[in-house]
Amino acid sequence: MRIKTLKFKQNMDKHMLEIIPPEYAWLIPLAIPFLIGLIVGVVIKRTLKLIIILVVLILVLVAVGYTQLPAFDDIAKAASKYLPTLWEEAGPLINMIPYSSATFLLGLGIGLWKG
After folding, report:
1. H-helix or E-strand spanning residue 6
2. Is residue 59 part of a domain?
């Protein structure tokens, strides 16, 4: 039974290698960071748009007198409470992004521009 399993695994590995022809295999390390860059660029652009819309909405609400902005001390206390936790959670995720790759930066630029 063990011999059949090993042969099956070897055959699967052999077929998996044949999915991408060797003459095109060099594109994969270029395409993956580019696609990640596109996705990150689109996410950043849409997040910034949402933040701008929320800031404008809050300013309009303050201008009409519907609400009041909190004091700077309250904002600073909330930031000092939540930002360290956010940094601890997001720190390892930042290391997963291939930001030193030229194709990632190209995808990021296109994602920010066209996204």
Report:
1. helix 2-19
2. yes
DSSP states along 56-113:
HHHHHHHHTTS--PPPHHHHHHHHHHHHHHHHHHHHHHHTTS-TT-HHHHHHHHHHHH
pLDDT band per the 50, 70, 90 thresholds, residue 14:
low
Q: What type of residue sits at position 45?
A: K
Domain contains 58: yes
- Gyration radius (Cα) of the chain, Å: 24
Tens-place pLDDT, residues 37-85:
999 999 999 999 999 999 999 999 989 988 888 888 988 898 899 888 8
d(CA 75, CA 83): 11
Residue 12: inside a domain:
no
pTM for the structure as a whole: 0.68
Residue 30 one-letter amino acid: L
